[in-house]
Amino acid sequence: IQEEQSPRSKFDFKAYMLEKIGIVNQALDAAVPLRDPIRLHEVMRYSLLSDGKRICPVVCLAACQLVGGDESTAMPSACALEMIHAMSLMHDDLPCMDNDDLRRGRPSNHVVFGERVSVIAGYALLARAFDHIATDTKGVAPGKIVRVVSELARLIGPEGVVAGQVADLKYGGNRQLDMGLEQLEYIHLHKTAASVEASAVAGAVLGGASEEEIERLRRYSRCAGLMFQVVDDVLDVTKSSAELGKTCGKDLVAGKATYPKLIGVEKSMEYAEKLKEEAQEQLLGFDPDKAAPLIALANYIVHRQK
Ligand code: GRG
Known about the structure:
This protein is mainly alpha-helical and 306 residues long. The chain has a single domain (5-303), classed as Farnesyl Diphosphate Synthase (Orthogonal Bundle), CATH 1.10.600. Helix content is 73%, strand content 3%. It has 15 helices and four strands. It has helices at 13-31, 38-48, 55-66, 71-92, 109-113, 115-136, 142-156, 161-171, 175-178, 181-207, 211-242, 250-254, 259-263, 265-281, 288-303; strands at residues 5-6, 11-12, 102-103, 106-107. The strands form two sheets. The chain has a two-stranded antiparallel sheet. A two-stranded antiparallel ribbon has the order 3-4. A hairpin with a 4-residue loop joins strand 1 (5-6) and strand 2 (11-12). Helix 3 (55-66) crosses helix 10 (181-207) and helix 11 packs parallel to helix 15. The structure holds geranylgeranyl diphosphate (GRG). Geranylgeranyl diphosphate binds at residues 52-53, 55, 84, 88-89, 91-92, 97, 104, 126, 156, 161-162, 165, 191-192. The site of geranylgeranyl diphosphate has 17 residues, from helix 4, helix 8 and helix 10.
């Protein structure tokens, strides 16, 4: 995470992220302790506690604080979002899906523990995520907790992340043959942006946001999630050409459709900038100091180098 300073508030984004990642990691450790059955919990914790950017939990906590809520109210949901993220990566890496042997710089979950255990541990994380929200969210009316459970289930389920994965699988390794921008955007909005949307909406609901504020944060997070993926596609090209002769981005080898392939690197970055502006516009009505983390996060997503 590089320095990302907003000129207005001199907000120290790096320090903010390091602090939030630290408290989220502690909360994750406590939410999925090493208890019976020990082996199953080891497998769950291997992926859950490995190094990640923790974007969804941070968005959830930041949205809660933006609307005046207490961070601790949103922590179980923030952890649940990371549990769901971890299980989706575990399942995505399986031989029957993307067949990736490496994740976050370590052997993938199924490489270490075997496919069958990895599938089961993924389901366990998914169930634990909803249990954690329902059981451990404190200080808000039960109706808000039900709303969060329902938003999350919808956004990760058959209308959300799962729909995005199904669309992606449909095109397999030959995405580029018949895929247009519209289909590519559908995949990214569902596979990636839906989780960021769930994170912002959960944080906002628990923080006591009005319906209008929830909708603004929903739009912010959809733009941020989509632009994350546009920039990811661009980084895949720029990293690969920088490392030419060493390795090549997996998606390039597989011949997948990406934003740079469909519209070129320059136009892809222009699109990412446009999405960033649209995301940040949604925050204009809020207290600028409280909005600083989400403004800086959007800047970081566009300008990151990895
Ligand atoms: C969610 C019920 C349910 C099932 C999962 C396998 C599957 C169905 C979906 C695949 C979802 C997937 C792999 C989406 C990609 C998300 C994404 C942008 C991953 C990379 O996120 P980073 O870069 O990763 O934030 P780190 O490692 O930093 O956490």
